[in-house]
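quick one: FE2/S2 (inorganic) cluster bound model?
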Amino acid sequence: MHLRRLAAAPAGVSISCMSRIPVETSDQLARRGFMKLCAASAAAVGIAPELLASTAPVKHYARVRLVHAGGQAVAAGALPVGESLVFNYPYATTPCFLLNLGRALEGNLDLHTEAGDEYLWPGGVGPASSIVAFSAICAHKMSHPAKTVSFINYRHEDVSFRDHAQKIVKRDGVIFCCSEKSVYDPARGARVLGGPARQPLCAIVLEHDPADDALYAIGSRGGEMFEKFFATFTPRLQLEWGLSDVRAPVTGSSTVLAIDEYSRTQMLCGG
Ligand code: FES
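yep, here:
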């Protein structure tokens, strides 16, 4: 069982403080107050604040096994480095990136949503702590991989873009949305490196089972765009996926595809 998710609560600490933070409340002040209360409780029994914060903001969905198109489980140790992979989660029509960045990715990175809600990104999972997943719905205007085309993609090779100071920089390993050129750093929780996006891509929480090397998606952290996504795109999603209920939750397993299998055309750009 993955220790990032299921750290045991010490005696005297309510499990509600560990795993049931009301992350969807719009009352940010109330949430902060609740966090302080939990932190105070944790401090009283000696639990590390970063452990509390790293578990608190997870929004849990179904625990879903990541599989290949043939149904066999994706093996974390065999996930190709630098390849842009996509799977749908937590809904049948919401795409996510699955990336093996090829190096250990430290977690406990303090990030915040556009609304100011703070959360900790847990880092990479898998045998080399190098595997991450994020919602592929751009945090700006929700460009996303569709069956016909994707304007947002992971770029393992060097690419140029404008940073926050409008300076042209060149680097590899970014998620680049070519719609209005928002750029995200998947090695740092998909924080924004440049462009108009005002919050990181929503992180998808993964578990790795070392017993069989399988990967599972279990929830999300950070700024979800799903409600806005459905409000904007439902008619097109119904046609594209042949579903009346575009919010159907993914359960059991989700198929992982290369981006060019998921979307026929890739729009790639530079700064
Ligand atoms: S939708 Fe991605 S940058 Fe605007």
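The chain has a mean pLDDT of 84.
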